[in-house]
Amino acid sequence: MKLLSGVFYALLVLSASAMAASAALIGSGAPQACTDEHVAYETYIGKDQNVKVSYSHCDDAPLVAANGRQTASLDKRQSSNVCGAACNTYCWTPAGGGPNTGDCAVIANALLYESQNVGALFNVTATGTPTDKITMQYKSCLTYFLNQDFSTLVYCRTEWSKLVNWLATDCDADNNAHGGLCVATDQRWYVQVQHS
């Protein structure tokens, strides 16, 4: 019986640790910003073609480390497929001024629609190229994927959809936040959700 209760306790601790690892970290400050953005092209996606997508490059895009803070440099990595890779979530305080979660759900659904009709995977070109940032916007919600790596990355629309929903609901006014981002644990990319 002691062995069984010990195993149960170990599973309980492991489960609690896993849940804590996925929780959002709350931090103050503004969303990561690009002041010198060059749009290569724009289009619309989704069943109703109502989500605007921009492919662009920022001359001054801040590099974000796995701890959510800006950094001066990142190490080169090997694999290009980062679909399903872990990321650390950071929310910006205080509450107020964040996107409408319903507007973000439209983007998340458009990503799922494109996944089913175009394909789950997409490429984001290497940092410093004309299309290293992909931005999606619907009404008050804006999300983007920024490649911070030195090579083209492959990511999946289904995972981006999940992150949009996660960040929109976990980094909202009810949680004393107004948007947030999820930075890859290896710092090669991040997804951000904010008010447009």
Structure at a glance:
By secondary structure, the chain is α+β, with helices and mostly antiparallel strands. It contains 3 helices and 12 strands. The strands form 3 sheets. Strands 1-6-11-12-9-8-3-2 form an 8-stranded mixed β-sheet. The protein has a two-stranded antiparallel sheet with strand order 4-5. Strands 7-10 form a two-stranded antiparallel ribbon.
Question: How would you describe this protein?
Answer:
This protein has 196 residues and is of the alpha+beta class. It is built from 3 helices and 12 strands. The chain has helices at residues 2-21, 101-117, 157-170; strands at 25-28, 37-45, 51-58, 63-64, 70-71, 87-93, 121-124, 133-138, 141-147, 153-156, 180-184, 189-195. An 8-stranded mixed β-sheet has the order 1-6-11-12-9-8-3-2. β4 (63-64) and β5 form a beta hairpin. The longest helix has 20 residues, at 2-21. Residues 1-23 have low confidence and may be disordered.
